[in-house]
Amino acid sequence: MRGRGATSPSNSHRWASRTGTTCCVREGREWGIGGGKWPDGQAVPARRISDMTQLPILVAAANLTKSPSNVRTVSDAVADAQLEANIAAKGVRQNLIGVPVSRKKGHYRIIAGGRRLDAVHRLIDKGVFGDDYQLAVLVLGNAKDAIETSLEENFFNLTMNPADTCRAFQDIIESEGKTPEDVAKRFGLTERFVRSRLRLADLAEPVFEALRNGEITLDIAVAYASSSDRARQAETFELLKDGYYRANVNEIRRQLAEHTYVGNDPKALLVGRAAYIEAGGRVDLDLFTDSTTERWIDGDILNRLVADKMAVAAEAMREREGFAEIRVLPSTHVTYNDTWDLRPLRGETPPLTEQQQARLEEIEVELEAANEAYEEAEEENATEIANRVEALEAEYRAIEKPVPVLTDEQKAGALAYVVIGHDGEPRLHEQLYVAPVEQDETHEPDDDGEDGDDSGDPVITSGKPAYSQRLSQELAEMKSELVRVHIASDPGFALDLGTFWMVDKATRRYGGSDLATELKADKPWSALTGFQSVTQAAEEWSKIDEALDRNWIEAGDACARYDAFCALPDEARAAWLAWAIARTLHAVVAGRDGEDFIDHLGTKLEIDVAAWWRPTANNYFDRLSSKAAILAHLEEIGGKELSSRYGASKKHDLATSAEKIFAGSVPIEADLREAALTWVPDVMRFTRPDIQIEAQPANDLSVPGGEDKLAQAA
């Protein structure tokens, strides 16, 4: 029996050639030539027909086979099933392209459209189409073009943008009144796939446009669709789009899920779905979630409802148990930060009764028997025995170590915590604590000079509230946030503050914790032991260091030092900033990370190395590994003629001579002397041919003494 779309092409005209052909020949008659009409009355574009040299013909599918010239040899089972479903519903709308089979009239080998032909053959085998099902085939006049034509057919297919697919599914459902199930069946897809694409179609506009423009991948878009809160999607996208985690699907999901809860979360179980929705809470639903996995996206509403229910439960427990204080924790456990400053309350362990002692002996016998049975048991029974052993051991531990018993007096001075059980029920935490005692400031000590309270807890006056460590840290974070945002909004203030932080730590041998910052300008560690530079740069650095205004250093505590530093003239503060930044620069060995950047800085600063540093026997020549290396340097400036003059010298003497030559203190030819005075070994050069620096005014330190000259010019 034929299914939908089983109508034979003899009664259908829905096909079109990829080459522009938009009509067919049937029973020797042509439709639409010269601007005519199709049988359904639609006009045929005459201008395209005028370009055609041949029209498709109708051929029985049984007379069509795939050509060996078809370049597509690998297909995809899922895509083939989707194509088959589409053809079953709508027929083949595009003609195939084939070449005649020699000595078999009316038979053709298909070089373009092989997947459509295979789908039709499968539908005929399933009885969806009849055995006489016909297809439109455009017959090539020249079989030599078969491979090229097949490649054209497959090579230029462009996969749809996923954003367009999403909106297309949405338009079909909205305009044609279809369901996701209808669309899935129509295109050979799973209903889950269609629904996932429909969910993408409802993405926040910035996210959807990023998908359409190829700025994010489909996987990233799916991660954003994990929440139906479009405002939250847009907020998260804006937060992450330029950051390191912009393509991290796990981080995207985490950000979206922040302050939301799943249906089986203890908080959700405590409040209940009906109460949450009644309070205005929203639930993120889809076809594949249930009451335990659905996501409750209004965490603020849920937390408010939890606080209300926990407060009621805590008050009821306080009245029932008689505790001095009960604190509510909207979580499943009590953390160290909640109890670090509290002393655990120890009750008395009750002695075992005769019945309990007898039960322990029974459990020991049962455990021994169970262990023996486990060793001989078959695999299918081993699990059951192991579970029994585990239950017996748990019972034994519970009897052996009973819950300590508190007296009424202890309860009256106890602090208890109420938490949420994993089943969503409020419960008392098993550990009780000694309740802090608030003592009036006018409280008088006993005659022996000691406070009458011997609990050992710190005395907390009524004038100051008791803060837990967690609360204290949270308050400190919020307080620091206020300062951070104001510093960040005032670059001038930040510059002075940052400079002070760095130089204050750098000028003090110990301390720094009173500055409340991680910023520092430490001098880098050096692998050289006992090295003392005697270069002109070292001398200049000493001058810069000595010229710094240090009047603020001894002003007092951190606050006083900071105020005194800010009172310095602009030039003095700027000098401290430059000093602090400069001292952090590392010495990078040639070939290691950082060398290129140091060279780049030297080039931008236009440092004249030859004017600042000259090679000497002590700092360079005598340290080279061989005499030949020194001669090679001489050859660089004077060729073989100069190096041969000193070829007979011993290495130490040669090093001394080289120092004098490169210092210009040896009478040699003028051109050689000029070259020697500007020469430095490659390892000391900053010049990098791969960058160009715009001409700048002469740097005040590009040559020795430049700072003084600049001051004189001013």
Jot down its keywords:
16 strands; four-stranded mixed beta sheet; five-stranded mixed beta sheet; disordered C terminus; single chain; 46% helix; 714 residues; disordered N terminus; alpha/beta
Describe this structure in words.
With 714 residues, this protein is α/β, with parallel strands linked by helices. Helices cover 46% and strands 7% of the residues. The chain has a five-stranded mixed sheet. Strands 11, 12, 13 and 14 form a four-stranded mixed sheet that branches. Strands 8-10-9 form a three-stranded antiparallel sheet, with no helix packed on it. A hairpin with a 2-residue loop joins β1 (25-26) and β2 (29-30). It starts with 24 loop residues before the first strand and ends with a helix. 19% of the residues are buried.
Structural class label: alpha/beta
Number of E-state strands? 16
Strand content: 5-15%
Helix content: 40-55%
Q: So what's the overall shape? A: flat
Q: Quote the distance from N terminus to C terminus.
A: 103 Å
Strand order of the largest sheet: 3-7-5-6-4
Low-confidence stretches: 1-53, 441-463, 688-699, 707-714
Radius of gyration: 44 Å
Biggest sheet descriptor: 5 strands, mixed
Total DSSP helices:
29
Mean pLDDT: 79
What secondary-structure arrangement, pairings included, does this model have?
Blueprint: E1 25-26, E2 29-30, H1 46-49, E3 57-60, E4 64-66, H2 77-90, E5 96-100, E6 108-112, H3 114-125, E7 134-139, H4 146-155, H5 162-176, H6 180-187, H7 191-201, H8 205-212, H9 218-224, H10 230-240, H11 249-257, E8 261-262, H12 266-271, H13 273-278, E9 283-284, E10 295-296, H14 299-321, E11 325-328, H15 336-339, H16 354-376, H17 379-400, H18 408-412, E12 414-420, E13 426-428, E14 433-434, E15 438-439, E16 460-461, H19 469-488, H20 491-506, H21 536-547, H22 558-566, H23 570-583, H24 595-604, H25 609-612, H26 627-645, H27 651-663, H28 670-678, H29 706-713
Parallel strand pairs: 4-6, 5-7, 11-12, 15-16
Antiparallel strand pairs: 1-2, 3-7, 5-6, 8-10, 9-10, 12-13, 12-14
